[in-house]
Amino acid sequence: MIYKQSVFEPWPIESETIQAICTSPPYFALRKYAIPDVIIGGDKDCKHEFGLTKDKLLNLQAGNPEFKREWRKEATQIINNGSFCIHCNAWQGQYGLEPTPQMYVEHTRLWAKEAWRVLKNDGVLFLNLADSYSGGGRGYGGKSEYLIGNGAQNPKLDYPNKCQLLIPPRVAIALVDGGWTLRNTIIWYKSNAMPESVTDRFSKKYEYIFMFTKQEKYYFDLDAIREPHKEVSIERVKHKFNPTKVVGRAINNEGDMIRFCHPLGKNPGDVWSIPTQPSSEKHYAMWPEILVERMVKCSTKAGD
């Protein structure tokens, strides 16, 4: 079943009925999608009057061969930071194009409250995010470009041009402060990541996947996602726990073997080397199936 709606509206799902949530929201200051704007905050009974918006050029496509695909040319590079109601300070715009990183984080916390509501107490939330840069053609706005609200009392937030904004850590900290338990910070290493045209820093090869839970005890099936041991690891363990090689102590050879070299395979760890997957589908950031498979297998069981 597919629900097509704003994530900031109440989700038509009963509370505590979902075993796993695997999601990747729009990244901060990346691109404008062909979807309606949303109105967040303010007075719901207000007859909003929104101030003027200022369009900006988002230069993310330059030097990226991924954007040479014909259908991607439809993506506009003209964006704006939305606008505020002159009466109640509600914000109208597109999620991911907020005027400040702080506002993006706060909006993420809003839908995360609905995720908390629908997730079972032993459920798991996987949240995929990548970082953005201020100014310099990565993200938008540099020094003195961020302005919260419409009042003179709201300070401008200055970031040096080309500065990494640390969006994923900001979001993770905010969700932990909101009650979530962060169990893993997984690095998704994209071995075939698209090249970048930058020459004054290293190109980006990874994204974050945060694994959140609601409580200390939750459903997690490690055996479902174990990976084969390398032959050298098997031989090393066999040698280490060979009773003829051990002097001065008794060991449970079979038990120690299983502990160090589980028969079903090894724990894949928190760095996942998974290449992106080509597709003819019209999608800007499609997950490779194996990435989703790993998240679903470890967090759900038959019938979920």
Would you mind describing this structure in some detail?
With 304 residues, the protein is α+β, with helices and mostly antiparallel strands. It has helices at residues 101-118, 167-177, 231-240, 253-260, 289-299; strands at 18-23, 38-40, 55-57, 78-80, 83-84, 91-93, 119-129, 146-147, 156-157, 181-189, 206-213, 271-273. A five-stranded mixed sheet has the order 1-7-11-10-12, sandwiched between helices. It has a three-stranded antiparallel sheet with strand order 2-6-5, with no helix packed on it. Helix 1 packs across helix 2.
Keywords:
304 residues, 5-stranded mixed beta sheet, 3-stranded antiparallel beta sheet, 5 helices, globular
Main beta sheet strand tally, sense and closure: 5 strands, mixed
Q: What structural class do helix, strand and pairing data support? A: alpha+beta
* Sequence stretches where pLDDT stays below 50 over 5 or more residues: 59-67, 136-156, 246-251
Give the helix level as a range of percent.
10-25%
Count the E strands.
Answer: 12
Strand order of the largest sheet: 1-7-11-10-12
Counting DSSP H or I runs of 4 or more residues, the number of helices is 5
User: What is the alpha-carbon Rg in Å?
Assistant: 23 Å
Shape: globular
**How far do the termini sit from each other?**
14 Å
If you average the pLDDT, what whole number results? 81
Task: Output the helix-strand order.
Answer: EEEEEEHEEEHEEHHEH
